[in-house]
Amino acid sequence: MTRLQPWFAVLLAAAVLGFPLWLVVATAGKSQSEALTPDLSPPSDWRLVENLGQVWTQGRVPAAFLGSLLIVVPTVLVALVVGSMAAWILARRSSLLIAGCYAFAISGIVLPPAVVTVVLLLRHLGLAGTAVGMIGVYLGIYLSTVIFFVTGFVRTVPTSIEEAALIDGAGPMLVFRRVVLPMLRPVLATVTVLVCLYVWNDVFYAFFVVGGRMDTLPLNLFEVASAGLYLNNWHLIFAYVILMSLPPLAVLAVAQRQLISGITSGAVK
Amino acid sequence: MTAVLQRPAPPAVPATRSPARSIARRTHPLWFLIPAFVLLGVFFLLPTLFNFIYAFTDWSSFKAAINPVGFDNFSDLALLSAVRITLVYAALVAIFQNVFGFGLAVLLERDTTVNRILRVAFLIPVLMSALAVGYVFQALFKPGAGLGFEHAWLGDTTWTIVVVALIHAWKWMGLSMLIYLAGLKTIPAEVIEAAHIDGASRWRSFWSVRFPLLAPAVTFNVATALLGSMNGFDIVQATTGGGPARTTEILNIFIYRTFGQGLFAQATAMSLVLFLLVALLAFPVITLLRRREEVL
User: Which residues of B are less than 8 Å from A115 in CB distance?
Assistant: First the structure.
């Protein structure tokens, strides 16, 4: 049994992961006529680079990439700073008020956001269809996750280091910046990964808030696919899938250990 | 939380101010909470409160005035069917995702090089866009193409919901696997040794000793799978778009389609239904699973 395990595991992975992923690469390498019925046969002549080039312009990849970055980066930065500030206080102080605040703050992990009325709200605020509005919506959704993870982490850190800094006369802002934030590095890495992953791949909330007004990678994938399915342009759809998946896969290749420990840290105590 | 609401204001400063608390006020000031809570208040709480108002109006893109209409937006029978489909979908995903994730965790438990590489490989779908995963499986299940199925598995009014749930589980099983692996790692070796000394077979010690100790991992995985699938959209949109004959139209697909038609109030009503559904379901499920943990 132990001797067979590696073979079985490899075969299973090849079947379960290999077929779908090979279909993406093979189809993205085919010509349009060959890709009309996407199957597992290898392309007779690899046209991957040409297809990537075509989808690069047709799917406005540079604009979409910039649009995605323009939303992901500020969302993560604001969520980390603002979320850790709140989490530090929520973890260090205790009263009924604090407990209530904490319950409210993390309820967003479970409760679904009000996706229709948030559009109305953004219109009132003059933020409809803007990157700022989109960032606000994502913050409203994912701050809960940040606060949950960071509060849990702060509770495991002894207060003695903070107290030492306080005795030296440092104010709370200084203590937070110089002492607390650096201590939070591992949990902040976790949360960064999670929030990036959600926001980078999100298309549902983006449809409502910036659909048709901004280019992001998932929105443009949807556009390419909607046009592509109609014309059976499977080679272009999968070329786009490859382009869009490269950044997260690069992160997986470089930082798999942090990624894995990050994903699992919040779940099992 | 209700306890907080019932307390006379201001609850933070009791009549007799303890010295510890006044020190805390200086070293850990409450104003640090303000930026996060302003953002949560504006972008999470406020739209949620709006849900409870606009769901009972005739707000639409067709006219400027917004008037109250009572429960009219909830009388659509399609809403009921979307709720039913969402619940079926969530239950199927929770089952498949946990069975697959658990199976993978057990299979890849030993820290060999092959297993380490395969664990990372099973994370690829987790990192991919769900929309992209949907398109991949649409191609795989295309009759006469992809895997070469004769039957249109994504055009079957009975089985498509199951197939889409399987695809959803395929995308997220790597995550469940990681959580179960972490759970298996936290079980001390002495516990298993003790079971062996007592004469338990491998099979028996696994199911009677190690499996029950995985309760926290089960709680987390079941809860996240349920919540993730009830909030699902991308995979269903990319594989079936809610079809055939609306048999896979989960609430978020319904909301998206209705919103696109300019029927904002109806979309809001569905959004409110989803909110209440998750609130009503998630909290009991989590409490139930937690209680199971405590018994063990």
Answer: 47, 255, 271
Query: pLDDT tens, A105-150?
Result: 988 888 999 999 999 999 999 999 999 999 999 999 999 999 998 9
> CA B8, CA B5: separation in Å to the nearest integer?
8
Complex ipTM, two decimals?
0.91
The predicted-structure confidence for B195-244, as pLDDT tens digits, reads as follows 888 888 888 888 888 888 888 888 889 988 998 899 999 999 999 988 88
B127-165 pLDDT per residue, tens? 999 999 999 999 999 888 878 788 888 888 889 999 999
Chain A residue nearest residue B42, CA to CA: A140
Q: B-chain residues within 8 Å CB-CB of A198?
A: none
Q: Is residue A245 part of a domain?
A: yes
Collapse the DSSP code of B249 into the 3-class scheme (helix H, G, I; strand E, B; otherwise coil) and give the result. coil
Set of chain B residues whose Cβ sits within 8 Å of the Cβ of A8:
107
pLDDT at A162: 84
Domain holding A196: CATH number? 1.10.3720.10
| CATH fold of B72-295 | MetI-like fold (1.10.3720)
Is some CB atom of chain B closer than 8 A to the CB atom of A166? Answer: yes
A30 belongs to a structural domain: no
A96 part of a folded domain: yes
B28:A234 CB<8 A = no
How many folded domains does chain A comprise?
A: 1
B183 touches chain A (CB under 8 A): yes
Q: Residue A232 sits in which domain range?
A: 60-265
Domain boundaries, chain B: 72-295
Let me know if A155 is exposed, middle or buried by CB neighbors in 10 A (0-12, 13-18, 19+). exposed
3-class SS of residue B223: helix
